Amino acid sequence: MAHGSGGPRGDCLILGIETSCDDTCAALVTRDGVIRANVIASQGLLHERYGGVVPEIASRQHLEVLDSVVDDTLERAGATLDDIEEVAVTRAPGLIGALLVGVSSAKALAASQRLPLTAVDHLHGHVTASMLGEDPIEPPYLVLVASGGHTFLARVDDPSEYRVLGETLDDAAGEAFDKGARLLGLGYPGGPEVDRLARDGDPTAFDFPRSQPGDGLDFSFSGLKTSLLYTLRDAPDGDRADLAASYQRAIVDALIARLEQALAQERLDRVALGGGVAANSELRERAAALDAHVWVPPLELCTDNAAMIAGAARFGRAIPYPDYFDLDAAARL
Ligand code: KG4
Ligand code: ZN
Question: How far is the CA of 275 from the centre of ligand 2 (A)?
């Protein structure tokens, strides 16, 4: 039997597969949380012209490239299918057609090697992404996940589960960035564009609302985008960089205020950030200045990736071969 040259047999590799949205991802992670390969084939350019992810295009593209993404992952790790001891796949939540491609491929791969399969909650992946790598965060900790599809605060005491403390009642923080960018005439995805433009602007030039719905830890971002719309209508010649900086400041203020509130409420001193918005330079800076130990994973572990899925599977329950044949993807948890 041929084995990979990248590590001895017994390295116990978990193959992760993630296709919940518009990135086709595969990764190899050891039981100890060492990432041996993490491949992300972004479909960003395919969707850019539509200003958002087109579900049908996403599923077709996953189908087209997933096999080669898995091959590439094995090659980068110097491994073969024989080195894998478990397959992990995102089962929910996400675009149902996109998820189905990953789940069917994972089942076929696992079955062909008679391996166990772990069905992973995508959000559990984001929540435990900071437990990977050389300096893993250890529970108990607080985690802020802010992406294009989700924004929530959770508490982790046991890595196999998380308790949501608060979440967005409307738009996700990444969605607020994307919609704001669109109003400002910037490209998609808008977060990085706003981030870049904001560096040249005055964050106090415009006063956008910091919505804090209720006394709990929930978020709301939809009013902010409406406020930007009105500001642009009333001051069409407003400086774009000032607008971007002020708009970003309002989003980051809301996220940081809830983080501080949660830290005090939960009496925790460890925080992890996750999701694509964790790439935001102002959020990273402000989080680092909190009175807590803060873990911000590298960018490729913040945005959607399969290493976090394989990583989360370490804390999940593997379904033995062949009991997973009727496993189904689900758009919602
Ligand atoms: O986690 P992710 O890759 O995909 C989802 O699961 O949604 O997050 C994508 C989101 C997009 O809304 C994008 O605009 C945002 O993350 N984003 C950023 C930055 N980079 C990506 N938002 C603010 N600043 C950034 N630098
Ligand atoms: Zn995600």
Answer: 6
